[in-house]
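hey
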């Protein structure tokens, strides 16, 4: 891994800070991060991923468009913009290796890149992060440059979880932690201390859709309003590139799945559009709660 001198700017903003390069996937979180960085006094330069980043939103900032697999173009554009720090944020489906649009820099790294695809998402993202750092960019987490995007401790909105809901959440957190060595998911659903669903490659929303179908078909016989979606980072997760995220769409999906609410690790999960998330939870009668980790707790 490349060495970085002590003269590099801090993660925060301030006069004289170099522009922050933001690799932007889908969703609204990249622009919340960009706005937070600009408020800190630091300029931003968006490297927007084609077919994922929203063109109308990207247009509000200095930017360029790139395709997945163009490592050389990423690096050249970031250097031309004067960037020394990099943040990757936004939704992105893991591409098939054959679908990558490779430039010459990427072609030269193909043996390493191929090995990165032979493993789970954390294995892939950690390896990509190392590649960026070896190319001379310091990789930062979105939460390091915009800590206000993290779910705080406490409840967003007016609805609070019951004791049963918090007990279910405790079991869910223990399960996410236990699955960590296998690089599986960041979310589970627990109801009455029974595990109903575990997130794998499909993502949280698809997991909740699957659960909604199971409840509607009678294969899971529970009344509506029972069950908790639990989200937390895996213990060994590359947090600079892949913190779990919730938002208004997550709340709507949880409601369709008949759940009572959502519980996440406070300070370790990103919330997209916090006000809209709280409003959706209030409208649908769900809770969204952040809880601090208690290492000695026994589920």
């Amino acid at each position: 891994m490349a060495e970085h001198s002590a003269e590099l700017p801090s993660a925060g903003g301030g006069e004289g800070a170099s522009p922050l390069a933001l690799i932007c996937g889908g969703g609204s979180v990249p622009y919340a991060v960009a706005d937070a960085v600009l408020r800190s006094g630091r300029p931003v330069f968006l490297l927007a991923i084609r077919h994922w980043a929203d063109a109308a939103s990207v247009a509000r900032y200095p930017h360029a468009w790139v395709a997945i697999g163009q490592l050389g173009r990423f690096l050249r554009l970031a250097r031309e913009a004067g960037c020394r720090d990099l943040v990757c944020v936004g939704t992105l489906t893991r591409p098939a290796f054959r679908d990558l649009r490779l430039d010459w820099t990427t072609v030269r790294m193909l043996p390493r890149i191929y090995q990165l695809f032979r493993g789970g998402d954390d294995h892939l993202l950690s390896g990509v992060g190392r590649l960026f750092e070896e190319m001379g960019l310091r990789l930062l987490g979105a939460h390091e440059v915009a800590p206000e995007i993290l779910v705080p401790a406490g409840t967003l909105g007016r609805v609070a979880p019951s004791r049963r809901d918090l007990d279910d959440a405790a079991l869910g957190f223990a399960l996410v932690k236990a699955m960590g060595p296998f690089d599986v998911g960041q979310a589970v659903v627990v109801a009455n201390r029974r595990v109903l669903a575990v997130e794998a490659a499909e993502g949280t929303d698809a997991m909740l859709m699957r659960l909604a179908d199971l409840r509607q078909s009678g294969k899971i016989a529970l009344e509506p309003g029972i069950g908790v979606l639990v989200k937390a980072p895996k213990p060994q997760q590359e947090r600079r590139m892949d913190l779990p995220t919730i938002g208004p769409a997550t709340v709507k999906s949880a409601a369709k799945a008949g759940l009572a609410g959502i519980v996440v690790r406070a300070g370790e999960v990103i919330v997209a559009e916090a006000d809209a998330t709280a409003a959706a939870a209030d409208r649908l009668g769900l809770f969204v709660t952040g809880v601090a980790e208690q290492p000695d707790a026994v589920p």
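The radius of gyration is 20 Å. The chain has two domains: 20-145, 150-291.
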